[in-house]
Structures are given as structure tokens and as C-alpha cells.
Amino acid sequence: MGKKKGRRKGEEGQKLKFYALKRGIGSSDEMIIRKSHDTWKNSNSTPTPENVPQTGPLPITSPMARYTPNGIASAMQSLRLQSSLPCRSRIPALRQAVRNYATETQPEQPVISEQQQAPPPPPQEVTAAPKINFDLFRLQPARIIPASPSYFSGNPRFIDHVLRLEALQLKHARLPTVTPGEAPRMAWFKLAQFRDFVGEAVPVKKYKSLVKILQRLNRIQPALVPKEVRTALEEFLRPGNPYALKNAPRVVDDNGLARAKGKRKESTAVVRLVEGEGEVLVNGKSIVEVFQRVHDRESALWALRCTQRLDKYNVWATVRGGGVTGQAEAITLAIGRALLIHEPGLKPILRKSGVISVDARRVERKKPGHVKARKMPTWVKR
Questions:
Q1: Which of 34, 72, 111, 271 has the fewest CB atoms below 10 angstroms from its CB?
Q2: Contact present, 279 and 331 (Cβ < 8 Å)
């Protein structure tokens, strides 16, 4: 029997503890409930049917009512109000202050009649906003938009120039053009100068594509070039365009002399040509003394021979550097240029004979392991 009573008492304690935790009751409340429960158990009074109502919830004064959840909560509330112990409930203080119980009373609110109420404020005058002028209305973007469409490319400034030139090319694509040889010569920026102009490291391949667009725009017939195209092309010209400055035409001086200069290999010759009887001096000597071979003498005077002017002009030549062949061919070029000053109409004949064309060939150097520039030594088997 003792074990059963102890087990039953433990079950009752666990049940009370469960109800207390379910209702959010602290340890002090649980102690109050257990104390009231023990007081009731020690009393010899037993509940009778007369004391317990048959219907409805059990009253708070009934001992049996305290075993139900509602009864336990009501008993705890009544004991909390009667007890002088400090409340250590887990319920927040704000929640306890807001919650109203049946035993609490609220002060009555004074009733204010309609006559005692303050008069409503006078209506305010509402002024309508002015009409929106959509011509001046500017939309503010939700995010920052770059000013250039090529902002996120590797070379935004270069791409801007390319797009602008391509737009001009497409706009004026129907204008008549001339051949590349007839187009005016333009000295475009070199790659290093263009990089400084743009401020970006533009690759060589991309710069060549830009130059092609410039050359296509430059091929438009000069008389029909639009102003915007001319302005765009001038932006990419080198300062001091060498092709824009034309050399002054050479003329015969007051003494009837025509001066010209010629080069061949390492030799340089300066010739003064004047009308005369056909006398030729080279470095103050006769041409026979300077050039002993007939081939060299004929090579030096070939410009006068092919135009049949041997007996009509006197030649005074000064030559320096190189060998005999180089000096003779340098004099040939100088005499041909001087003859053009006197008679410009001889240009087709002189060009066809090759006396006014520059020969830029040089002696090829000897290589190690070779006998000469290209000759290899004879191969011997043993």
C-alpha cells in the first residue's frame, strides 16, 4: 500500500507540474498549488454530490475542481491575489499588465456629449497642382547609364571613333569615288601618335581597320566631299602634314643654270647644266680622264644621248664617294633631273629610258661560311 500511495502521489505531482508548465506558471505558483493541494488532502472532508454541481464548470471553492485545467488556473489566480509572496511567473510583465481578469475593475470613462465636443476644424482650401508639361519632363533612370555605348569595351574611346566613322561611311556611301592613286595624299597618325591621341593601348590590327575606313572616306570625289567628312578626316592627320606641303618647282636661275642632285650606292653627285656646246667636266677634269672605260662614260651621259642633246648643253659635275660605277650612275641621275628643269616635256622619254628613276639597290653583305654574299664553298667528299 505504501508503494501505491507513493506512486499515486508522484503521479499527482507530475500532473500538477504538467498543468503548471502548460499554463506558463513559475516555480512559486507551483509551490502554492502544491501547498493548497496538501491542505485539502489532510482534511477529512470528502466531496459530496450536494457540494459539487451536476452541470457547468466546477466552482473554485470545490476541492475536486482544482484537478481540472480551468480549476487549477482559477485557483492559482485566487491564491496569487491573496498571497503576499512576490510573483515569479514566466509570463512577461507587459502581457500581465495588458491582460484584464474578471476580478479586476477598470475606471469608468467619462461620457462626453456631442455639445461638449470640440467643433470640427474649418475646411482648408486645396490648390490644384499646375499641369505637367511633358515636353520639359525628364525621366530619371533607376540606375546610372554610361554616356557611351562602348563603355564596357576594352577601348571605349577607340570604339567611339570607329562607330562615328562607320556611320559617316554608311551615310555617304552613294557619293562617287576616285581611284586610290587619284585620291589626295594624307599623312594619318602613326600608331604611337594615335595611342597618345586616344589615351588607350590600341592594338595594331584594330588601328589598321580604322585606317581603312579613313582611306575609304578619303576616296570620295574631292569636289563632293561633305564638310562633316572633311572635319572628321582632319582629326586623324599628323601635325605638319608632309604631303600637304608641296615642294616649290625647280626653275632655271638668272644665269641659266639648272642644279640637280643624284645618288647611287655610296656615291653622291651634284650637276649644274647650262646651254652650251657639249663640254663635260667632272670634278674639274675631262670625263675621259675620270672614267677611262667607255661603258662608264656612256652611262654618265646617257640622259643627253637618248634625247639627242649632247651638243646643246655644258655639264659641270661634282661627285664624291663610292666607286667608278656608282659615281657614273649618280651623274646619270643628276643630269636627267637637271635636263627636266630645262625641258619638262622630255619626262616621258627620260622615264622610259630609266635615267630619272632612283636605283636603291645596295651591295649585299658577305655571310660567314660563304665565299661571297651567296656563293658556298665547293663541296668535297673527302
A1: 111
A2: no
